Amino acid sequence: MKRWTSILLGAVLTAAFIGPGTVTTAAAAGAHYGLALLWALTFSTLACWTLQEAAARLAICSGLPLAEALRHQFDGWKGVAVRLLALGAIVLGNAAFEVGNVLGAVAGLELVWPVSRPFLVIGIGLLSGALLWFGTLRMLPRVLGAFVAFMGLAFLVTALKVHPLDGALLHRLVWPSLPEGAGLLVIGLIGTTVVPYNLFLGSGLAQGEQLNVTRFGLTVAIVGGGLISMAILVVGTAVQGAFTYEALADTLGRTLGDGARVLFALGLFAAGFTSALTAPIAAAITARGLLADPSSGNASEPNRTYRITWLVVWGSGITLSLLDLRPIPAIITAQALNGVLLPVVAVFLWIATNDPRLMGRNGLTSRGLNLLTGISVGVAVLLGLRNLLAALQAAGIGPPLSESLLLKVAGGLTLVLLLCVSRYLYRLRRLRS
Question: Which sequence ranges are marked TM in the entry (predicted)?
C-alpha cells in the first residue's frame, strides 16, 4: 500500500514535467532531427531521478523541504536575496508556464472538438480551479495519476504505430549526437524533464515519507515519464516540414487513421491539464516553505500562503489564456529559460544534501550519488551557460561565436564552477563531521 502511495506521489512529478512544453519540444525535436536527440531524454531522465532523489532525501532526513532548507542554509541579507530569487523565479515562472499549460490543453481539445477557445479556457479553468480549491495534497495525486496513466497509454500506443521498437531506436537512446543547430532543442529537452520547480514540489511532497518507499515511487514515476517523453519524440518524427500541433495531428490521421489523431489530441489535453494543476501546487509549496508562513500547520494541507500563491498562478494563467496567445513559441521560450534556471537550483540542492548539519551522518549523499549529481549538475550548467551566451550574442552583446566555440566557453566556465563547488563540499563535510 505504501509503495502504491509513493507511485501516486511520483505521478504528480510526472504530470508536472510532461506538459505541453514536453509535447512541443520533444515532438519538434523528432520532426526536425528524427531520432538523433533521443539520447538527451535518456540523460535527462537519469538526471531527473538523481536530483529528485536528492530533493526527497533532503526533506525526509532533515525534516526540511528544499525551500525551508534554503532558509536555513543562508542567513542575513544573503538569505533574503536567495529567497526572493527563488520565490520570484518559481512563482513568476510558473505563472508563465500556466499559460502554456492551459493553452496546450485547449489545443488538444481543439484538434477533435471545434469549440470556441474562450469557452474551452473557461471550462478548463473552472475544473482545475475546483480541484485545486477543494482538493488536498493527498487527494490530488489520485486524480493526476489517472490522467498520467491515460496520457502515457495514448502516446506510447501512437509511438509504436509510428516507429517499431528496433535496433536503430535503441542505438539512438544511448549514442549522443548533436546535429548542427540542435543545441537549443537539447537544452529544451533537458529543461522540460529536469524542471527546477519540480525539485521544490517533490521535496515538499516527500516530507514525512519513508526514504526507501519514496525512492521506489520516484523510480517508477520518473522512468515512466521518461518513456512517455521518448514516445512523444518518436511521434514527432512523423511530421514533414514545419512543426505544429495541427500538422502532427493531420499527419497521424493520414498515415495511421483517425484513431491516432484522437489519441494524440487527448494525450496533449491530458499533458496540459495535469500541468495546469501541478504548476500552481509547486509554486504554492515553494512559497509556503520560503516565506515561513506562521499559519502553516499540517504540511499536507492548504494554508493562507498556499492558497494565495496557487490562486495567483492559476488566475494569471487563465486570464492570459483568454487573450488567445499562441502556445508553441511561448512554451519553447519558457523551456529555454528553464534550462538557464536549473543549474542555480541544482547547485543549491547539491550543497544542502552534503551538509551534515542538515542531513545527519546517515542522510549525506554517498560518493556514487555525488558523482551522478555532479555530472547532472555539470551538464545542466554547461547547457544553461551555452544558452545564456547564445542569448547574449543574439542580443548583440559580445563577439560572434560559433556553436562549437560557445560550448567550449560554456564548458570552461562549468569546469571552474564544479571545481569550486566540489572544493566547498569537501570542506563543508570535513568541518561539520
Answer: 36-60, 80-97, 117-136, 143-162, 182-206, 218-243, 263-287, 308-325, 331-352, 364-385, 405-426
How far, in whole angstroms, is CA 210 from its chain's centroid?
A: 23
- Looking up cell 531522465 gives 45
Task: Quote the number of domains for the chain.
Answer: 1
Exposure on the CB side of residue 23, measured as CA atoms within 13 A: 35
Rg (CA), the chain: 21
- Look at residue 407 and tell me if it is in a domain: no
- Residue 369 lies inside a defined structural domain of this protein: no
In a domain, 428, yes or no: no
Report the alpha-carbon distance of residue 270 to residue 64 in Å, rounded. 32
Given a cut of 90, whether residue 221 has pLDDT beyond it is no
Grid cell digits, residue 304:
493562507
Confidence (pTM): 0.82
Q: Which of 88-92, 94-98, 263-267 has the lowest mean pLDDT?
A: 88-92
Which three cell numbers, joined as nine digits, stand for 390?
547564445
Number of H helices, E strands in the chain: 19, 0
Please give the single-letter amino acid code of residue 26: A
For the domain that residue 219 is a member of, what is the CATH number?
A: 1.20.1740.10
Whether 42 is covered by a domain: the verdict is yes
- Of 9 and 188, the structure prediction assigns the larger pLDDT to 188
As a whole number, the mean pLDDT across the chain is 80
Distances (CA, A) of 246 to 108, 142, 192, 220: 9, 31, 21, 32
- Rounded Cα distance, 79 and 83, in Å: 6
Q: Domain span at residue 220?
A: 2-185+192-325
